[in-house]
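Q: I have two molecules that I believe assemble together. Could you output structure tokens for the complex as a whole instead of separate predictions?
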Amino acid sequence: MLKDPKDPEGLRKLTVALDYLTLAKQADKLVPRHLESWEYSDKPDPATEVSDKTVGPWLDRAKAGVERVPYAFLNQRYAFQVTRILFFHKRPQACIDYFQSHRPLLQGGSIGWRAMGYCAGALFQLKHYAESNYLYSLIYDRCPELKLSAYWSFHPQEEADWNRSLALAATPREKQVLWQLMGLHDDALRAMQAIYALDPRSDLLTILLSRETNMIEVTTNLTGWSKSSEGRDRMKALATFVDRVVRARDTREPYAWTLVSGHLHAMQGDAATAQTLLDTTAVLAPGRRDVAAEVRLERILAQVMALQDPRSMTASLADELLWLLEDTRKHKERERSDNLLAVIRSRLNHQFTELGDPYMALIVDEDAGTSLEFKEKTARSSAKLQRLLDLLDRRAKTPVERFAAACFPYSRNDLIEAMGMDQLYRGRPEKAAPLFARIPTATLPGDPFIIHIKDCHDCDHEAAQARKYAKAQFVDRVLELETRARKGNSAADYFTLGNAFYNISYFGNARRMYMGNYHSLDSDPRVMSTRKAQDYYLLAMGHSKDPEFRAKCAFMAAKCEQADMIRTTKDPWDRVFIPTTYFTELATTFSHTRYFQEVLHECGYFQQFLDNR
Amino acid sequence: MAIWLCSGCSREGIEPVRGIYYWRTTFQLSAFESESLKQLRFRKLYLRVADVARDRATSQIAPRAKLELLQPLPSGVEVIPVFYLKNEVFETVPGDPGLAGHLRHLLAGLEKQGAFKAREVQIDCDWTERTRDRYFHLCRDLGQVLHERGTKLSATIRLHQVKFREVTGTPPVDRGMLMFYNMGSVTQAEYRNSIYDQANASRYLERLEGYPLPLDAAVPIYSWVVHFRYGRVVELIEKWPEAQLTSQPGLERLAPGQYRCTASQYLHGRYLMQGDRLAVEAIDPATQLQIARTLRSVLKPRGPLTLSLFDLDERNPTLHAHSDIETIFDRFPAAGSGPLAHEVDLGLRDG
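A: Yes, here they are, computed for all two components at once.
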């Protein structure tokens, strides 16, 4: 087109199009940035205001474009630009006037609706809420690109302007749209009742039905954990209306209403009525697989809500719940089933708690939410862990036990690992070893048998290791050392054991020892204590005559002492802990050793200790 | 060593300096508000200048709703500009190392337009343990910048920051303004006043002694309406005087300050559903007396003390009860026994 001089029309079109684009790009800059500047003055903020001088010429150009450019397509766009510039230049009345006087020109296409949007915004600024909200409702209904924006802009202030908006509606449809907007924002039931009265077959009803049901679900206590009866009244109000509509059978999608009615009855524990309504729903929506899927979920809900004692769960219900569990695991995107499953598990958890069975409550609970306290208790008790294991292992399970076992997110190995950890931290490695032997165990990241003056776990983890230890192997080695040390009274072995027990405490490099799949023993006092390590260091010290070695033992004992000080202080942050007992020993007995010098060189606390003596 | 002579001190105690907050986005006093300023002899006007917030889209820190002066600032009162810094400013990175400079610039602009010079600037920020270090950094920067021009810096201190001061720390500023309100949780079941509640107050106040900053106090005179639906709080509605509710059709008065909605309706931009409850929480004269007494039992000022009201707005019914307000400003007992007519104090930052 550009290159063809024989097409003057094409060339002219191109020229005027480029003219318009230039204006459009510039007009964009006339919209102020939304961030205020750090300038304080009575002059307009250059960041949020644009001066008359700047805007004037562009406004004139836009107006000229409306009048003079001989293409209706561009006239409309120029008129849009005028409207927009006036809006952003804070001249709302001029914006409104211009829009009204050029309304026929501006009609059509999203550009027309955008212009209307500015007019609506200007009306709102001038507090003409009725007209403003009315225009927003038109945009909401007829311009998909701006639907969401119009939704958020809609905001009646008083009943008076709300009623006036309704009066402005030119058709019944326009009235219904206003009601839908209002219903989605503020009061879905009132809106449904109004729309239903205007036209029972309106397609604007079902989303409101869904909305109100969701609002009720959020406030209704389905699991039993909350004592409040919040949603009940709201549910009753909706149920009354829905039942009326169900009986009348005059809506566009009757199945939706029977489905919701069934849902409400299910939530209230009336399984019989719910099932009947669900049967009707299936009949009313033949061939609808989505409806059939929903109905299946509803039937599950109805049965669970009617179940007073979980122990009397039927085999068929358990089967359905197992299906639900499987389905949810396979299809993570199915939020509805996921929610339903979560509610059911929480409800069963509550029921078992009330029945005084914390084990079943824990097993069925999702992610140990309300049963966290009990879970912690089990992690510290091999007996309790064994009971859990027995429950899961039992051959002849009741229906609810079958479902619960499938829910439980931990494996047998996880529980056995927990038992091993429990025994080890009780100081019974000989009991821990056979347990760890039965299962694959995690590898400890560093060498748990070495120690330094300054602890650096990351360094230990990154250092090259000739041999890595899995938890099972660690325990085996500890047992080896213990046996050997006792026989030979070997100071070196005692020292190594001291290292081992220091490292599996909170303070050491082998913390992974107490982090299990089932549970981690964080802040368990047994994990926080370095008593056993200290005992071994002192034993080592007592069995050696080498002053360098003994100095080392003394320092390591000091580390344990410091760890203990930290453990027993309420708010240990930002404090300095000086282990005086063993620092004293180090200073008085071993000041002549090379190790003493090493410690002096590396340990600031020790220097501080000496300075304060 | 700093020695001060306090003209308001006497054997009977310290008369507080009267202050009041102004917290709207445009500065325009109604006739009543102007009158109240004069009649109640306020000497300090704490003026919100701007909010400082973090823009969600760009993560940039920028001022918001800068105060628009629609009339000259009142003469005869000391204007203390207040910057409200939202905690989000300090919550994430990037920070703004130039923030103190920006605030000083804003201050200069305000002073120019308002034709005054600020002797004190206040920052209001509900900082937490997480934002503490960055906020304190700003306090130091701003303090430095202000001290260079002979201006002091104060910061608001909320009750929870007194109680947990080891965790939240004490801001490095010259003075603190103890905000003596918003103590209770808002629940329908308890029907307690969440603006000021005596039982709640005492729990926080036992930690007040030995607070490392000299403190002034801010006291509430505002009210709000708590909007309940099915027992849950929907929202807090500010500046709705009870008078508006008593005459509103579709609202049934159940008890003083308690209303029920009998007809669903839009009201002043909010939506009330049938069955919703409205609870007006205000500071009645009895509570005011309680506040005044409690303040006097926990605050033992060693120097001049400013007592400030929140806030200057004719929609606050309490502002209309001038005699009640006078009781708030009764004398404070001075710290220490064996009072002297003039006290010598050591190393104190003067007020």
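A: One point stands out. Residues 132-148 of chain B form the longest helix (17 residues).
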